Amino acid sequence: MDDPGPTGTTRPPVAAPTAPLAAAGLVLLCALALAACGSPSKSATATTTGTTGTPAATTAPSPSVVVSTTSVGGLGRILVNSEGQVLYSFTAGGKPVRCDSSCLAAWPPLTLPAGVTSPTGAAGVGTLGTTTANGVTQVTVDGLPLFTYAGDPAPGVANGNDVVSFGGTWKVVKAS
Questions:
Q1: What are the CA-CA distances from residue 146 to residues 31, 85, 92, 100, 139 (Å)?
Q2: Is the whole model's pTM more than 0.90, yes or no?
Q3: 105: helix, coil or strand?
Q4: Which of 1, 28, 77, 165 is the most exposed place for a label (fewest CB within 10 A)?
Q5: Cα(7)–Cα(63) distance, rounded to whole angstroms?
């Protein structure tokens, strides 16, 4: 019991001012935990490096799909990145050509998102892997490094198809 005050009455206990903050923090923590337990999207089947369309078994949450497919008028089904930007290969005589720093300004390489260690792709993408060139880890499909094109103003636009520059030819990558 509290000590009587100068008038001889007892004061009721006072709740600590942090009690409402602790309760609010607990509610927020529970909400975040529930949100993290959401189910993955059913719109694409993810695969990992070295596979050709079979989903990989994993116990960790699967990362977002890095490469998927879309139909583009006149080109058929082609590969796009997670933002829908068309993906290109850069070859000469059927062999990959190295893209130097001036080339990379117009043709940015497809790299992995932060925290992702291997590329994932939707069905029909092909065999994904990575290569390291110019100090970055770049996504490959069937051994060919993948690039986007700075001249494509919107997702699904393929202005870079059949462009000859930097010692090779740029081609959209067809779905397998």
A1: 39, 11, 15, 14, 6
A2: no
A3: helix
A4: 1
A5: 67
Residue with tokens 């393929």: 158
Q: Which residues, listed in sequence order, are joined to residue 147 by a DSSP beta bridge?
A: 88, 109
Q: Which residues contact 126 (CB under 8 A, 6 or more apart)?
A: 52, 79, 141, 142, 173, 175, 176
Closest CA to 119 of 158, 146, 86, 88: 146
Cβ pair 51, 147 in contact under 8 A = no
Separation between Cα atoms, residue 126 and residue 52, nearest integer Å: 5
- Token pair 């100068």: residue: 6
Length of the chain: 176
pLDDT higher than threshold 80 for residue 4: no
Q: Which of 57-61, 113-117, 136-140, 156-160 has the lowest mean pLDDT?
A: 57-61
Higher pLDDT, 139 or 6: 139
Rounded Cα distance, 156 and 158, in Å: 6
d(CA 81, CA 125): 11
Beta-bridged to residue 90, according to DSSP, are 170
